[in-house]
Amino acid sequence: MTEYLNQTAKWYKKIGTDAYGKPIYAAPVEVPCRFEGGMKLIKDKNGKDAVSQGKFYVTFKPGIEDKLEYEGREYTILNYEDTVDLDGVFVYRKVWV
């Protein structure tokens, strides 16, 4: 899978919320990825319909509400799906933003 991750993004991990309920993020980390743009109707973390602006493929496990910055644009993670091999070992995560 790593041979297809020929792009890079900055990952902002959500580490909490402030007193007003706004997310607090860790310092960004540059990560390899594959980005594919395109609108798609998906379900968000609450099971409600949401419009995704694209998806990232990554070999780490970002969480919902983390952010990925790609080509100067920030995307908030709406949902994800993990792929595992036949032994049940994590291979990659598809992340909808």
Strand order of the largest sheet: 7-6-1-4-5-9-8
* H/I helix tally: 0
Count the strands? Answer: 9
H/E series, N to C?
EEEEEEEEE
The biggest sheet amounts to: 7 strands, antiparallel
CATH class: Mainly Beta
Estimate percent helicity: under 10%
Average of the residue pLDDT scores: 93
Question: Could you tell me the strand content as a percent range?
Answer: over 45%
Distance N terminus to C terminus? 20 Å
Organism: Carboxydothermus hydrogenoformans (strain ATCC BAA-161 / DSM 6008 / Z-2901)
Protein name: Phage protein
Question: What can you tell me about this protein's structure?
Answer:
The chain is mainly β and 97 residues long. The chain has a single domain, classed as Thrombin, subunit H. Helix content is 0%, strand content 61%. It has no helices and 9 strands. It has strands at 7-12, 14-17, 23-25, 29-43, 49-58, 67-70, 73-76, 79-84, 90-96. The strands form 2 sheets. The protein has a 7-stranded antiparallel sheet with strand order 7-6-1-4-5-9-8, with no helix packed on it. Strands 2-3 form a two-stranded antiparallel sheet. A hairpin with a 5-residue loop joins strand 2 (14-17) and strand 3. The protein is globular. The model has no long low-confidence stretch (mean pLDDT 93).
